[in-house]
Amino acid sequence: MNAFRKQVEDYLNQWPTNKAVVSFDFSKDQINYGQRRDNRSISKLPGDEEYVRAYIVTKLVNELGYDMADIAFENEYSIGRPTKKKARIDIIVYKPHSNDIFMFIELKAPDKYKEEQNKAIEHQLYALAAQEINKESNKIEYLVYCSLNDLDCSEMVTLIDYNKYDTFAKWKDTPDYHPNLLASYSSAPSSTAKRSFGVNDVDARIEGIISSLNQHIKYTEVKDSLLFVNTCILALFNDEFRNNVINGIYDSDSIVSIIDEMQTNIVKSGGEIDKYSFTDTSNKTSITSLIKSTCTSMKSKKELDGAIYSLLDFLKDIAKKIFPIIQYGTNEDKLLISETIYKYIYIHKNGKNSIISTPANITNFMVKLLDLQEEDFFVEFCSGFGNFTLSYLLYIINNYGDVNGNKVSGIENEDYIYLFYITTLRIIGLNLIQALNGDMLRLNNINDLIPSYNSNYKVGACMNPPFGGKDNAVAAKLVLKGCEILPKGSLFAVILPYAFAIGSSKSNGFDAEQFHKDLLKNNTLLASFSLADGTFGVAASTVVTTFIIKTGVPHFKKINDTEYELDGEGRKIPNEKTYLMYCKDDGYKILKNTRVEKKKGLGKEKINSWLSDYQTKTTDPLKSVYIDIHEDDEWLIEAYMKTDYSTLSESDFEETIRNYYSYLIKSRRV
pLDDT tens, 255-309? Predict the structure, then answer.
């Protein structure tokens, strides 16, 4: 049984009494559905589509409140086909005691959902719906194209209001749909209503757009793709320009004139750049120059005037598919946009689903470790496109309802990533840009990042610096600089490779022992959390830990400026103990090179458990200790935890040996 079918089985097993699926034996591909409106006999599970049906009909009955007696399977229609092979619709949900149909549902196996979407909606749903109405003289409320995500079994839904769009031609260019099945005959929200789009829908929208970009416009570098995408998004924030794009006003215009219009709308006085409030005006100047140079290079790119897919097609896709999320989506939906855009651009370029940005479950965890209140300040060093900032914003919004832009800042060295960062803030609704485009090693103090800094409130900071190989030496400098910039007593959460925690590591100009000494001289190591292997994707080999550092407070007790208090063994006495924790099981697993939750909500459960254990300093010999730490110690729980031999198997031993030999080979020791 494959992983997808096992997840369906686990879902069905939640219901000891199930009127939708009376019994099943997936090992034999057998199923027995409950009594329905139709009498068709279905007892076999010939493929994944039938497993989708088992899941969806169970959800309809057990979670969404429909009666199995109002549900029918496999209604047949002619549609010009030979009599022996009639077209069928997979599930029909009738209104109670009526021939009128509430949902007309076409199912697909997970691997077919995206590639067959338009074909199935046009030639199955719309074609069969028309025949159903002609034959029965009844009504249909909604057409539904549906499957499951084979990674986590979440629903993938395209629900279309048939009263509003009674032909495919009317619907195809909107695209106006709802991404969820409806509960017990409720109405779908209006296309202009605030609503949740959900992870699957946001992902599907953006994947399709970036796929078209990669296939037809063919930027070869991640940098160029990001500059192009963000320039388009910024231009479309102009309401008049966006509406003109949607309504076809520019359909006969030249690509050059459209690019000129984009540039004007972004950089003119009162344009989109002017809607930002930059605390450092030099950043505004540099971003304006970057937009102009990007527009100039766009004019010479012939693919933007392609017959199959052009700049105008891309702008229409962004306007119709992403801007509804920006305008009407939840904060969680909006926070997914930048990360998903970056993911699909990066995957296309690098050929592997390797993640070089910090996963959201880890950024959420690290932000929560800072324990910030509404009036406190937050800084993201090495900002990238703002993963930690997004987690901070979500944390503040969820806890306090609103966020103050004066409280948020950061710094990013790469100008094209900085543009992505400020576009992300615009998507969220923040126009005040305190974050800087520049080299953090040149900063003097916290006021460079937060002009309104008030020492009455705390500062918390997060960082995922560039690391690995020669970058480790740079990362060490950046961490120490962050500690220097932050006010005394600030909490600083940093994600770093194990090499930083093992005092004997020394290569490519990086010396872990010296880093330990430099860090603990003026700062306190409060905690180290050993994170999951594969945190950054299956293609990334680096294993990482998260340090929590209290800045400006020496780790060891001092007698005077040069002398330390010593214990009976002649070792320095720490001001505080350090908490070390084993966080390898974060609730995720790797499927198809992608990190997915083992079950819905498990990742959040794990984070809450870690936070609780850290706050109470709970110790467990198998996963956590609270001990005195020194410069020459290993700052990882693995050096102190006990092994639970009862859980080990022969395969664990074999895997350990293989990993050890792999390490020896990679380090050229054999």
Answer: 999 999 999 999 999 999 998 888 888 999 999 999 999 999 999 999 999 999 9
DSSP 558: B
pLDDT of residue 198: 87
Say which amino acid occupies 517. Answer: K
Residue 506: which residues within 8 A CB-CB, separation 6 or more? 512, 513
- DSSP letter at 467? -
Domain ranges for the chain, please list them.
3-191, 202-349, 353-645
**Residue that has been written with the tokens 């995206």 in this structure:** 114
- Rounded to 10°, the helix 222-236/281-299 angle is 100
103 Cβ neighbours under 8 A, 6+ residues apart: 91, 92, 93, 141, 142, 143, 144, 159, 181, 182
Closest by CA position to 325, among listed 334, 313, 338, 336: 334
Whether the predicted pLDDT of 43 surpasses 60: yes
CA distances from 122 to 127, 143, 158, 168 (A): 6, 11, 13, 6
pLDDT at 98: 92
Tell which residue, 317, 318, 357, 315, has the closest CA to residue 339: 357
How much is the average pLDDT of 364-389? 93
- Output the six-digit token pair for 359: 């996963």
Which pLDDT value is given to residue 85? 66
Say which amino acid occupies 558: K
Cα-based torsion angle of the residue sequence 378, 382, 384, 389 in order, rounded to the nearest 10 degrees: -10
- Residue 437's φ and ψ, nearest 5 degrees, are -100, 100
Separation CA 30–CA 347 (nearest Å): 38
At residue 648, does pLDDT exceed 70? Answer: no
**E strands, 338-407, in order:** 377-381
CB 301 within 8 A of CB 217: yes
- Has residue 593 got a pLDDT over 70? no
Tell me the β-bridge partners of 128: none
Radius of gyration (Cα) for the chain, nearest Å?
28
The architecture in CATH of the region 353-645 reads 3-Layer(aba) Sandwich (3.40)
Q: Which residues neighbour 146 within 8 Å (Cβ) at sequence distance 6 or greater?
A: 52, 56, 105, 106, 107, 108, 155, 156, 157, 158, 181
